[in-house]
Amino acid sequence: MGTEGKARETQPLGVLGLAPRRLGIGMSSAWGGCVEVDSETEAVYGMTFKILCISCKRRSETTAETFTEWTFRQKGTEEFVKILRYENEVLQLEEDERFEGRVVWNGSRGTKDLQDLSIFITNVTYNHSGDYECHVYRLLFFENYEHNTSVVKKIHLEVVDKANRDMASIVSEIMMYVLIVVLTIWLVAEMVYCYKKIAAATEAAAQENASEYLAITSESKENCTGVQVAE
């Protein structure tokens, strides 16, 4: 197991030769609006996983400069070690064999005012299970003074063999099947109702036609009888 060591030579955003397009996810730039969303906490072994870290400013019009440091405590250990620092669009990775060639920046770009500080971990292994801390350091510039703030976002990550379905998807599938059954029963009931209604209407029409036929026949007989009497 690797431990925190000397920082590597700083690298630009295209570190590890992994362009954002190859991962199929676009990179964010300056934000017009910011919403803080919790990260997913379950990664699949051997897959790429995005750990979200979003820290919004309370006032978007305030000018700011931000940098971040990520730390990690592997499952079963007690100490946090730094794994990276991102500042001025430069990603500086620590020497740690667990993250060797696996960490890619996926946060804000083209600005010093970082609000999305997320990262990718490629080819996830069980050594990546544990607790992550995203330390956000922000310098706010006001008219007459500057103000430093810091926030720590904590993410607990579990690595599994295959993705587990969450309760929401299970409930959605159950509701879908229930809806299909209900609609099928309703459709059958409508068909039976319509069939009975058509059958009743047909029978009533047949009876009405029979009555008219008998009435015509009876009238014809009466006319014939009258003709005979006249003769």
From TrEMBL:
Domain Immunoglobulin V-set stretches: 37-146
Membrane topology per record: Single-pass type I membrane protein
InterPro entries, per the entry: Ig-like_dom_sf, Ig-like_fold, Ig_V-set, Na_channel_b1/b3
Subcellular location: Cell membrane; Cell projection, Axon; Perikaryon
Domain of life: Eukaryota
Metal-binding listed as a keyword: no
Ranges annotated as spanning the membrane: 174-195
Keywords in alphabetical order: Cell membrane, Cell projection, Disulfide bond, Glycoprotein, Immunoglobulin domain, Ion transport, Membrane, Signal, Sodium, Sodium transport, Transmembrane, Transmembrane helix, Transport
PANTHER family, per the entry: SODIUM CHANNEL SUBUNIT BETA-1, SODIUM CHANNEL SUBUNIT BETA-1 AND 3
Family: Belongs to the sodium channel auxiliary subunit SCN1B (TC 8.A.17) family.
Functional summary from the UniProt entry: Regulatory subunit of multiple voltage-gated sodium (Nav) channels directly mediating the depolarization of excitable membranes. Navs, also called VGSCs (voltage-gated sodium channels) or VDSCs (voltage-dependent sodium channels), operate by switching between closed and open conformations depending on the voltage difference across the membrane. In the open conformation they allow Na(+) ions to selectively pass through the pore, along their electrochemical gradient.
Name this protein carries in UniProt: Sodium channel regulatory subunit beta-1
Species of origin: Felis catus
